[in-house]
Design a protein that fits this description.
This protein has two domains: 6-73, Multidrug-efflux Transporter Regulator, Chain: A, Domain 2 (Orthogonal Bundle), CATH 1.10.1660.10; 79-154. The chain contains six helices and three strands, in the order βααββαααα. It is mainly alpha-helical and 155 residues long. The chain is elongated, with a radius of gyration of 25 Å. Strand 2 (35-36) and strand 3 form a beta hairpin.
């Protein structure tokens, strides 16, 4: 009995991605069709390849680029190499967390400044003056945050 094969559109639908994405994955040799009809050019995939696409999407969700996934899927690397790659990605995410936390702190500081600034009657300002006031607050706070992050990184 012949194995049931999925057309590219069916695999795309199952996986929640576009057929264009599958073609890109094929070009990068990440997900290859098990059969290509020579006359029509139709691509066919095995049902097991749904899991392969899901794994690829999980790696993407963790922030890995297609090029990085291609390297990981090549099978050329040792366990130690993979550990280095994973730790590098973890470090990238940690840096993004620090930046996000700094931005949250900056927003909180802006809110406090706006709330407790008694020297400026915000409601009485014109639209232009409000925009100027807010841009000055953001610039002052942004430079403070950047400086603090820079100092923390270099310590």
């Amino acid at each position: 009995m012949d194995e049931v094969l999925l057309k590219i559109g069916e695999l795309a639908d199952f996986s929640g991605i576009s057929t264009k994405a599958l073609r890109v994955y094929e070009k990068m040799e990440l997900i290859k069709p098990v059969k290509v009809d020579e006359e029509t050019g139709y691509r066919y995939y095995s049902p097991d390849q749904v899991k392969d696409v899901e794994a690829l999407l999980e790696w993407k969700d963790m922030g890995f680029s297609l090029k990085e996934i291609q390297i990981l899927f090549s099978g050329k690397y040792s366990k130690d190499d993979i550990d280095l790659i994973l730790n590098a990605k973890k470090k990238e995410w940690q840096e993004k967390i620090w930046i996000a936390e700094a931005k949250i702190g900056e927003i909180d500081q802006l809110g406090c400044t706006l709330k407790y600034d008694e020297s400026t009657d915000f409601e009485e300002l014109s639209k232009e003056d409000r925009a100027w006031y807010l841009s000055k607050l953001a610039v002052i706070n942004d430079s403070n945050v950047r400086q603090a992050i820079s100092e923390a990184i270099w310590l």
